[in-house]
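User: Structure please.
Assistant: Input sequence and predicted structure:
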Amino acid sequence: MEQLERKVGVLKVICDDAKRRIKDLEKTNSELNKKLKEQQDQIKQLQRKQEESEKNTTKSKDFGKLVKDNLSGTDTNAELKQQLDEYIRDLERCIAHLSSLS
């Protein structure tokens, strides 16, 4: 009889440990699900920002037209170089702006 009571006691300890482990795992699972949801929300937010940025930037096919229209008044290489330097600075500002959005 004592041996049966000891076995029941051991099984009770094992059962209590398993219940405690289940609670810990459920808590960890809940925390991980919360983090996952936050990251998914952040991804959606960043995707919206990216879409807005793409809408606000001129498409590359329009750059050629823009350059062609603006370079028509430049006759010398110095003027051309100055105009290209200006475009490069504008592009760098755009890149810096896009980098600050992320």
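The CA atoms of residues 2 and 89 lie 88 Å apart.
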